[in-house]
Write a structure and sequence with these properties.
The complex is a heterodimer of chains A (430) and B (161). In chain A, strand 22, helix 9 and strand 23 form a beta-alpha-beta unit. The N and C termini of chain A lie far apart (77 Å). Chain A has 12 helices and 25 strands. In chain A, the strands form 7 sheets. Chain A has a 7-stranded mixed β-sheet, sandwiched between helices. In chain A, strands 1-11-10-5-7 form a 5-stranded antiparallel β-sheet. A 4-stranded antiparallel β-sheet of chain A has the order 2-4-8-6, with no helix packed on it. Chain A has 4 domains: 2-43; 55-161, Sandwich (Immunoglobulin-like), CATH 2.60.40.10; 173-184 and 229-429, 3-Layer(aba) Sandwich (Rossmann fold), CATH 3.40.50; 194-225, no CATH class. By secondary structure, chain A is α+β, with helices and mostly antiparallel strands. The longest helix of chain A is centred in the C-terminal third of the chain and has 22 residues, at 383-404. Chain B is mainly α and 161 residues long. Chain B has one domain. In chain B, 89% of the residues lie in helices and 0% in strands. Chain B is built from 6 helices and no strands. The radius of gyration of chain B is 19 Å and the shape is globular. In chain B, 38% of the residues are buried. The mean pLDDT of chain B is 80. The chains are: A alpha+beta (430), B mainly alpha (161). The interface between A and B is large, with 54 and 64 residues.
Chain lengths: 430, 161
């Protein structure tokens, strides 16, 4: 047990009072009496050393949640040792989480063989994998003059996934972006465009049978549709700290992840083959593939991705050559760059790739409003300066987008509205 | 009312130093409340001790008055200190889990019990010192020395075992 500040104060006051009492023979030194009795009372039984407390902690937390969903964390501390008169536990919550409800502290007594449970709710503002560590426990005497500090491990992993935006214009979103590819879709024969009516051949799906025409002509006829063409594409996600807007503890990582996930989900749902390359602290490479399982794999990589300076967009060409070899040689498919802004390196990279025969598309994640809100929320600048700054930033983004549109098709994405201008594009397409 | 008016007269008319001590004590108590400090209530009690002891001594005698003032202040400071610790846990803006609050209040009643024992012990010591007052003039010295000795024995015993 270590001495606490409170005990030191009591001791010093008592000693001083005693000195005053002895030197002056005055009753003022009687302050020492209750102080000393306080210490003696808190010491408890003097001639029997208390056995050490043996504590165990277990944490219960949901493993997979969506961003901003409240997550209940339960921390149970069990005492297998001697009775604990007073225990103060302060759970260490990862910095990425925000306390939504309750308190992370607990003050209680735990007798031998009993347990106490601390409950609180947290939420995550960004997609991430967070690891809960241990909890800081102070075992104290009841008047808190003596205490022992220990740290009990209670590990748990929580993974927060991005939310998909509601699909207002779900059908053919990829086509609305004119990213229709040349490779046959997995959903061959998808009902994209009606071409003709032909005779039924064994193996034709029943849903294609044109029952009215069959009844009229007396033989079984089926509708013929144009074959859906899928897109063989690679989403290149720019997680470089150079370009990622950061204000205090806020950054645009969550927006980039949500946008990339929405894009990948849409492309896969439309029957495209999608691969991914994430440039950040560590490069994540996922070969093109179909299906929900493949989408989940990409999502996991996105959630784990952290912004960094190690791998920048200048290395994209190198990665494509070494990792996506067949695709690189065939020049097939398209590259879709997702970036939280545009800079000269992205322009240079796209120009080089277009010159080599690649089809490039860009999705610029517009975080200007969120960034302005973060600056405003932290009171870093006046609202007037923020408005001016936003106007300048908007102009800069527009200029870069104009430059970028010379070598690729550019779309903008915003966290509250998804792909901007998509509905208009849908209307024009139809 | 008597205590309050006497205190005001005593502090305002006779001793500006005492008034300063009381003001500092109130400040320390307020700071302890708002910062949820464990030590500040003790500092507050310490600052208030001399004026309080003088005031109470004028009513019930110097030895008993000092002991009573010291006991009341130590008990009060310890409770305030505990309340501040409790508030750190229970005053979460979004409320706390019911089990956490039940456990905390159970500890609070155990703490009150321990303070009751402490009050009883102080009363016992005061009672035992009364006969000594007739024997020797240096009662305060004897009582404080006895208390210190008692605690030293406790500490020694804990270190040895």
């Amino acid at each position: 047990m270590s001495l606490k500040n409170k005990l030191v104060l009591c001791g010093v006051v008592s000693a001083t009072a005693l000195l005053v009492s002895v030197v002056t023979y005055s009753p003022l030194g009687l302050m020492a009496v209750p102080m000393m009795l306080l210490i003696a009372t808190d010491l408890g039984v003097p001639f029997r050393r208390r056995p050490e407390a043996k504590l165990r902690a277990a944490r219960s937390v949901q493993q997979k949640v969506l961003v901003t969903d409240p997550v209940l964390v339960e921390l149970t501390v069990e005492n297998d040792g001697a009775d604990i008169e007073r225990l103060t536990a302060e759970d260490r919550v990862p910095s990425e989480t925000r306390l939504a409800r309750g308190s992370t502290g607990m003050l209680c007594a735990i007798p031998h063989g009993k347990s106490a449970t601390l409950r609180y709710q947290v939420s995550l503002q960004q997609p991430a994998e967070i690891r809960f560590g241990g909890t800081e426990v102070r075992i104290q005497s009841i008047l808190a003059l003596f205490e022992t500090r220990i740290s009990i491990p209670a590990p748990a992993i929580l993974r927060a996934y991005p939310r998909l935006m509601s699909r207002k214009v779900a059908a053919g979103r990829a086509k609305a972006l004119t990213w229709t590819g040349s490779s046959p879709s997995r959903y061959r024969g998808g009902r994209v465009e009606f071409i003709d009516i032909r005779d039924y051949v064994a193996g034709d799906p029943l849903k294609d049978v044109n029952w009215k025409a069959s009844a009229r002509l007396g033989r079984k006829l089926v509708n013929a549709w144009s074959v859906e063409r899928g897109l063989d594409c690679i989403i290149v996600v720019d997680m470089s700290l150079d370009i990622l807007p950061t204000v205090g503890d806020w950054n645009a990582r969550g927006d980039v992840i949500t946008c990339s996930y929405e894009l990948a989900s849409t492309l896969i749902a439309s029957g495209n083959r999608v691969g991914m390359l994430i440039m950040g602290t560590t490069p994540a490479k996922i070969r093109p593939g179909f299906g929900t399982r493949h989408l989940r794999l990409m999502l996991d990589q996105l959630v784990l991705a952290q912004p960094g300076l190690a791998w920048k967009m200048e290395r994209v060409d190198e990665f494509l050559e070494s990792f996506f070899r067949t695709q690189y040689r065939n020049r097939g498919g398209a590259l879709i760059f997702v970036a939280p802004g545009v800079d000269t390196s992205l322009l240079r990279v796209q120009r080089d790739l277009v010159a080599k025969g690649f089809t490039c598309n860009s999705v610029v994640v517009n975080t200007l409003e969120n960034e302005a809100a973060a600056i405003y929320g932290r009171k870093l600048e006046s609202s007037e300066k923020i408005r001016q700054g936003s106007r300048f930033a908007r102009s800069e983004l527009d200029w870069f987008e104009t430059q970028l549109s010379k070598c690729s098709q550019v779309n903008e994405w915003r966290s509250d509205r998804g792909f901007l201008g998509l509905e208009e594009a849908m209307v024009n397409a139809t | 009312m008597f205590c309050f008016s006497s205190l005001v007269i005593l502090l305002l008319e006779r001793s500006p130093t005492a008034l300063t001590l009381v003001a500092l004590s109130v400040l320390a108590l307020g700071a302890g409340y708002f910062r949820r400090g464990s030590l500040l209530p003790y500092v507050s009690a310490l600052l208030l001790y001399v004026p309080a002891a003088v005031l109470v001594s004028s009513v019930i005698g110097p030895v008993e008055g000092s002991l009573a003032a010291a006991s009341a202040l130590v008990l009060g400071a310890e409770r305030m200190s505990f309340e501040n610790d409790l508030a750190k846990v229970l005053e979460a803006p979004t409320g706390v889990d019911s089990e956490t609050s039940v456990l905390a209040y159970r500890l609070s009643s155990a703490h009150l019990q321990r303070l009751g024992i402490l009050a009883g012990l102080v009363a016992l010591v005061a009672g035992l010192s009364a006969p000594l007052a007739g024997v020797t003039f240096y009662v305060p010295v004897l009582v404080t020395c006895a208390s210190v000795l008692l605690v030293l024995v406790y500490l020694y015993a804990r270190v040895q075992h």
